[in-house]
């Protein structure tokens, strides 16, 4: 029985790897479960044994990487005494720079943002994706709406608008770098771009010059 479970897990991993390869190459809409079965060297029945449909397989692929809403919820829960805006800032920077260090995350986000057309077949996956977007915006809004942060917002800016601005920045950086890695260097350029966004949202956000002065000399 143990061997059977191990074999089943190997088959599941092979199917996920085949799906990732084909989704990246052909796009999600143009890849069928039959294509994936052939790529993985298994029968179509084996694919259906592990996954109910293509949306289920797509979601399983996404589950292999941590998404920003999950990371933000975890960080805010574990860092209750930290400045919520610094925690959010660090998450934005890490989310972009991790694309450089994690090849699988880079491939999966490329599929999600650049190789996926949410057809009727993927309605369930689309709804899940939209739920994650809304959750991230809501979590960001909670940080901007906290008693210590809300008075610091720029005049006329609501916590909801500030949250949408951060989401737009993050998605824009993901899209741009995955489309053309030569547009900017995630390891050196992400931090100043994120700080520029927060400087436009928060009245007392320190300038780059002040931050550099505050850093200890090596």
Q: What is this entry, summarized?
A:
By secondary structure, this protein is mostly helical. It has helices at residues 2-26, 33-40, 44-50, 54-62, 68-78, 84-101, 103-114, 123-144, 159-179, 186-201, 208-214. It has two domains: 2-62, Homeodomain-like (Arc Repressor Mutant, subunit A, Orthogonal Bundle); 68-214, Tetracycline Repressor, domain 2.
Description of the molecule:
By secondary structure, the chain is mainly alpha-helical. The chain has 2 domains: 2-62, Arc Repressor Mutant, subunit A, CATH 1.10.10.60; 68-214, Tetracycline Repressor, domain 2. Helices cover 72% and strands 0% of the residues. It is built from 11 helices and no strands. α1 crosses α2 and α6 runs antiparallel to α10 (186-201). The longest helix is centred in the N-terminal third of the chain and has 25 residues, at 2-26. The protein starts with a helix and ends with a helix.
Features:
single chain; 218 residues; mainly alpha; Arc Repressor Mutant, subunit A; Tetracycline Repressor, domain 2; 2 domains; 11 helices; elongated
How is this fold's topology laid out?
Layout: H1 2-26, H2 33-40, H3 44-50, H4 54-62, H5 68-78, H6 84-101, H7 103-114, H8 123-144, H9 159-179, H10 186-201, H11 208-214
Helix pairs in contact: 1-2, 4-8, 5-6, 5-8, 6-10, 7-9, 8-9, 9-10
